[in-house]
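ARCHIVE CARD
Drawer: 12
Card no.: 0347
Subject: one protein chain, sequence and derived structure
Cross-reference: see card 0346
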Amino acid sequence: MRTLIKNGKIVNEGKIFKGSVLIEDEKILGVYTREQTPQEALKADIIYDAFGKIVFPGFIDTHVHFREPGLTHKADIFSESRAAAAGGITTYFEMPNTKPPTTTEKLVEEKLESAKKNSLVNYSFFIGATNDNIDEIINADFSKICGIKVFMGSSTGNMLVDNQESLKKLFQNSPSIIVAHCESEKIIQEGLEKFHKLYPENAPAKIHEFVRSAKACYQSTELAVRLAKEYGTRLHVAHISTKKELSLFSDNELKDKKITAEVCIPHLWFSSDDYQGRGIRIKCNPSIKSRGDRNALRKALVNNFIDTVATDHAPHTFQEKNKEYFLAPSGMPSIEFSSAVMYNLAQRKVFPLTLMAEKMCHNPAKIFKIKDRGFLREGYYADIAIIDPEKDFVIKDNEVLSKCKWSPFDGYNFKGKVCATMVNGKFVYKDFALIETQAAKQVDFF
């Protein structure tokens, strides 16, 4: 079966050109400029005319929470992978803070089995570190696990790793990349105590910036970077949220880095100014911080201090979320609209369009050593996202595909929407509608 995507504006490996992608079964046969497209390609079994549209490699989101098992009233692999497909996400890496937490190989295997049956897009799962399972992690088979997640803050209760000896042992012996959530537990607890006294009831959402402060982030990130440098560990620091943390990273070429950084969609779009209108909807960990921090994060993407963009997609039901500050959980859904946010920032000239492919496709594949994905290249899997740049749409809670049925972007009017998503050579989303095709695969690593 051959499929031709023709007449599109292709964004790939630092270039933008009009051309076509020829696919045979699951993989790409060739990527051509419009003039180079062979005549035989025009005889493909399926032809998708992408005239006026933008063709990217499928986006890779290396930071999601799909809530399965144990929290499936909020979300599950089936529902959230559908939302991913609608956002042009063709591969996701899911975090271990489920119930039970994914802290053993057996529990990773159970998630893989569920994804094999239920996921609309490609998948992999992190194994989570605790103070007590370091030996199991060191001996795990990482040919089927995307990495090790360590929480150096209080986001996940019993998965908090706060024992210095456990941390040292993990960083010294890690057989895979470590992805770290960095916030100082001690500073967070001090912030909670302080603001509980100031606001015994009806605390405003805006205090979250100070409860989970820039100081808490910097102190923990500095520790993670220091340990990684000491032991030569591959480290990827999740959801950088402050300008100060950027001083801990390098703007070297990615191939020369062992320590890399991620920024998430909420921290690129929102600032603490938005607590006034968005309130508890944008409560997340680490917190949304100042406009200066947000602008520094945007600039750091361009200057290569930050290497990847992810979502930290973390659904809760609106009933759970819509509570007083101290009772409302942190986290928000965003996977369906991450490409729209990034495309709109590119249209505002915050960064070039090629940066979307670099930070959301190429670099995740390089950093996590994903085999044959993340690029439009001959021999690579045909994971493709196509954006209609002229599509205007307003985000509405009741139209959100995520199981929780709300969004922090409710009411925003965006221009530029994913109109088609291909996974392993098959359309799973086309003409702004889902096609529930079983095309997804477990991600392979090298």
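Annotation on reverse: The mean pLDDT is 96. The longest strand covers residues 2-12.
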